[in-house]
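Work Package 4 report. The design task specified in the project plan requires that, given a folded chain encoded as structure tokens, an amino acid be chosen for each position. We show below one input record used in the internal validation round.
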């Protein structure tokens, strides 16, 4: 029997190459081994972006196009928008009744994000309850495997604790305890060396044109100690080298040797890297252009996915309500 995966992504902007390597590539691979539920979690986007939702629908469509273009197959996976499956809301409500307040307050990312986003008013009930909503997403489909980066491990642990507490309180076995599956590329630098993020403006989008990719790559920070082409380089501090490891690992050693031996200049090295990335993304880019001309096809995928997700989530909710002695009259 296949395991079940739940993977969610917040529609807070265009996906970038860090998202592609850290999540989307894994999604494509996982659907060959697991029953996969892939959700665009728009309610989660509201936890930090409730004040301005003007781009929300555009972002949802953009993510769906990127997923489908990269190889996420709606015949193999359930692809849907979170808010289109209202069962998530009831699951969240019922789970919030049994979740101790101290559990959500101690999640490391809660206070960390409050500090990072101190200029925005996110001290809300919804933001505090983010881990419980995430737990509802997971438990709605009884997912046993959750692909995440290390920074999300506390959220998986609280989901396990909530599932365990519910089963204990109501003497049932409704919910499994999901296991985290760490992503292979959890972190990719932006062109300035910091983590790739739209908040830093250092990203390369999945939907970038070939010319845009070449421009961004040409702006990547290289070894600051290498002033001249004849100076030996230090690839471990060079942003392009990190991309070679991610996009052309078979050339990783030779690129490092060329850099250390001053056999190739930084400009030529970045041009070659740009060619590699453009070639890798070319079929995805072509598919993106096709789907942008046919958005109704994308919406059809999301609608059909929501129907399938709703059936599974409702089945779980029936068991949950039964365990809690809740009845419809």
């Amino acid at each position: 029997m296949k395991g079940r995966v739940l993977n969610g992504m917040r529609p807070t902007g265009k996906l970038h190459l860090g998202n592609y390597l850290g999540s989307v590539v894994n999604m494509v691979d996982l659907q060959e081994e697991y029953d996969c539920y892939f959700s665009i979690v728009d309610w989660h986007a509201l936890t930090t972006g409730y004040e301005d939702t003007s781009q929300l629908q555009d972002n949802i469509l953009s993510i769906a196009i990127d997923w489908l273009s990269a190889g996420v197959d709606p015949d193999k996976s359930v692809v849907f928008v979170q808010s289109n499956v209202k069962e998530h809301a009831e699951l969240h409500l019922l789970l919030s009744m049994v979740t101790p307040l101290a559990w959500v307050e101690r999640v490391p990312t809660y206070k960390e994000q409050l500090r990072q986003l101190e200029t925005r008013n996110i001290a809300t009930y919804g933001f505090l309850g983010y881990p419980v909503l995430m737990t509802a997403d997971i438990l709605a489909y009884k997912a046993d495997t959750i692909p995440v980066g290390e920074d999300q491990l506390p959220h998986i642990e609280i989901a396990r604790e909530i599932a365990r507490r519910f089963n204990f309180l109501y003497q049932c076995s409704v919910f499994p305890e999901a296991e985290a599956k760490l992503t292979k590329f959890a972190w990719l630098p932006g062109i300035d060396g910091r983590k790739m993020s739209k908040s830093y403006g250092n990203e390369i989008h999945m939907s970038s044109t070939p010319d845009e990719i070449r421009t961004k790559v040409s702006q990547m920070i290289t070894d600051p100690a290498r002033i001249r082409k004849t100076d030996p380089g230090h690839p471990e501090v060079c942003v392009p080298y990190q991309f070679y490891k991610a996009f052309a690992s078979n050339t990783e050693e030779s690129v490092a040797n060329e850099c250390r031996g001053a056999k190739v200049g930084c400009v030529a090295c970045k041009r070659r890297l740009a060619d590699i990335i453009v070639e890798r993304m070319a079929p995805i880019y072509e598919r993106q252009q096709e789907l942008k001309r046919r958005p109704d096809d994308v919406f059809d995928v999301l609608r059909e996915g929501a129907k399938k997700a709703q059936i599974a989530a409702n089945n779980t909710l029936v068991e949950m309500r039964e365990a809690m002695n809740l009845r419809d009259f």
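The domain at 4-187+295-323 is CATH 3.40.50.620 (Rossmann fold). Validation will be extended to a larger panel in the next phase.
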